[in-house]
Amino acid sequence: MDLTRRQLLAGAVGGTAAVGGGRAIYNVFLGYDRFTGTNLLRQDLDPMVASGFRPSEAHVATVDGYRIEQHDGVLSVADDSDTESEPLETLDPATDDPADAAAVDAELGLSDGPLEELVADLSAIESGNVRFVYDSYPAFFDLIAEHDARPYTVSAVRGYRDADPDLVADFTGADPHDPEAVVEGLVDGFREHTNYDIERYLAGSVEDNVLFGARDLRQHFESETDFEAILAGEDTGLFCYELTRRSVDALQAVPAPDQTAPVVGGFVKNDRHKHVYTIVASVVRGRAGEDGDGNGDEVEDEDEDGTGDLIVPVTFLDYTHSTLYDDLRMRRILGDGLDAYGDGHRATGIHWYQ
Question: Is the pLDDT at 288 greater than 60, yes or no?
Answer without folding.
Answer: no
